[in-house]
Design a protein that fits this description.
The complex is a heterodimer of chains A (192) and B (197). Chain A is mainly alpha-helical and 192 residues long. In chain A, 67% of the residues lie in helices and 0% in strands. Chain A is globular. Chain B is mostly helical and 197 residues long. Chain B is rod-shaped, with a radius of gyration of 54 Å. Classes of the chains: A mainly alpha (192), B mainly alpha (197).
């Protein structure tokens, strides 16, 4: 298992496709937290995020032979998670439309992590995580995806372009507009 | 010097260091002269730093176990599904059973009917008739002629054999076979014999 740390994701999935179950475990180990963070920023609910990540790995397990090495493995797995997260959001939206009268405040289902960011990382003028998260939630879905992938997941423009299946220019423009829109939302929330 | 609108178009590229040297100089120049754009730039930068420092959400400790269980459950579900898909009597719709039963009844009925129609043809004449035949022509090989042949008139109809068959016996014979006598002449002859009696 030791030499597996030296293997790239693509080599791991190749081994898994050849029947090596341990390679799958290594993939889970490498990606579970990353995907959990990604899914969480979409749905803002820990249980739902974990379900999304579980579904992602189940899909990877079932459709391992569907992966072709034309794209990076990370792109493929992020795309699966993103699609699942969007499905959850869509379902939630439909549920809200159906039972809107029973719902409380808009942020009722937000589940913030109990542990705060490290104090040494705090910089003066930084916004509180909750406020930023609320502002992100208010963004349109395509802006939200772009900004989560770029500023939280810190993926490259190329990777984002592959994940959201859009040209590089569109990705750049979308990230720029998302950041500007986020500032507007933050101003609006701070005024409240 | 670029406008605030142009600056906003370049701001992300500038933050991500994906900007050309020339444009970077223009942005830096604008930042030095425009306080509102400078404020916006600082705000975006701080938000980006904040997002980088968001508390990390980790999966539960038993995450791998949950994954394994789900894979196992999924595998079992697939096996059960494939078993269901395979051939079984329970999958045959009930109307097929009804149809098969009806078909069986028709086939059996057809064979029974056919046997009743032709099955007797191979049988020999009733003992009384046999006895009469033997009386009429002792030693004749016709004694054991099947009823079919007798019906077609080989012994009843032959002119030289003056039958003294009892009319009641002919009635019996007719009762048994009258519907299957194809030859009208034979019936006439039987009537003639009856008349002679």
């Amino acid at each position: 298992m030791g030499n597996r740390f030296k293997l790239t994701d693509e080599e791991l999935i190749r081994r898994f496709q050849a029947g090596d179950e341990a390679a799958f475990e290594e993939i889970v180990y490498r990606y579970s937290d990353r995907l959990m963070n990604f899914a969480y920023r979409f749905v803002l609910n820990r249980e739902e995020s974990e379900d999304i990540v579980q579904d992602t790995f189940l899909k990877v397990y079932q459709n391992r032979h569907a992966y072709r090495e034309i794209a990076k493995f990370s792109t493929w797995i992020y795309t699966i998670t993103g699609n699942l997260a969007k499905t959850v959001l869509r379902k939630r939206r439909n549920r809200k439309l159906f039972f809107f009268s029973r719902l409380g405040p808009e942020d009722k289902d937000m589940d913030f992590p109990s542990k705060d960011r490290k104090p040494e990382n705090k910089i003066e003028g930084q916004f509180d995580e909750r406020i930023i998260q609320r502002a992100i939630k208010k963004l349109p879905e395509h802006f939200r995806t772009a900004i989560i992938l770029r500023d939280i997941q810190e993926l490259s423009y190329e990777e984002i372009s592959n994940i959201i299946n859009a040209p590089l220019g569109t990705v750049k423009s979308r990230i720029n507009r998302a950041r500007l829109r986020l500032q507007e939302e933050l101003k609006h929330l701070k005024r409240k | 010097m670029i406008s605030c609108y142009q600056f906003k178009n370049y701001i992300s590229d500038f933050i991500d260091k994906e900007i050309s040297f020339h444009n970077r100089k223009l942005v830096e120049e604008h930042l030095g002269n425009c306080s509102s754009c400078n404020e916006l730039f600082q705000s975006i930068l701080n938000t980006k730093i904040s997002m980088n420092n968001f508390a990390e959400i980790t999966v539960s400790d038993d995450f791998m176990l949950k994954i394994r269980n789900r894979i196992l459950a999924d595998r079992n579900a697939r096996i059960q599904l494939s078993r269901k898909k395979s051939y079984s009597f329970s999958k045959i719709p009930s109307f097929i059973y009804g149809f098969a039963a009806a078909l069986l009844v028709v086939v059996v009925g057809f064979f029974i009917f056919r046997y009743q129609k032709y099955g007797v043809s191979s049988a020999v004449a009733p003992p009384i008739v046999q006895e009469q035949i033997q009386k009429m022509s002792p030693g004749s090989p016709r004694a054991a002629v099947p009823v079919d042949q007798t019906v077609q008139g080989q012994y009843v109809s032959s002119d030289d054999e003056k039958s003294d068959i009892d009319s009641s016996r002919i009635k019996y014979f007719q009762g048994q076979r009258h519907q299957r006598i194809p030859d009208k002449n034979l019936q006439d002859r039987i009537k003639t014999v009856k008349g002679q009696r």
